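S.,

Sequence below, as promised.
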Amino acid sequence: MASKTFSSGDVFWAPDPYSAGSNPRLWLVLAAESIPYAGEEYMCAALTLSDLPDNVRLSDDDWIVGNNPEKTSYCSPWVLSTVKHDSIAEEQGCLTEATTKRIIQQSIDYLAGDLNRLT
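The prediction came back faster than expected:
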């Protein structure tokens, strides 16, 4: 269980609610203070190692700290979940504010059905 609270842009390991019985996956915090139960829950987007269409490639420049130079990470801005603070296994790092805002906007575009903005 994590001891510190997290902010937008932070990346941590937590269970994957979409894969029962799997290992934890990386999650990017999109919102922390602006949602109900701040400090107890985080609105997040999933990170993956899969280079699938529409995934956002995270380069070395997108990371402030926590990047694994031997692996390329991607963010799936449509794979969203609320992650409970008590379920966080371990902190991984932090993405830049610009990268986080770009992914937040892409998540909003998916939710709003604004597919023209995504191309």
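The chain has one domain: 10-118.

Coffee later?
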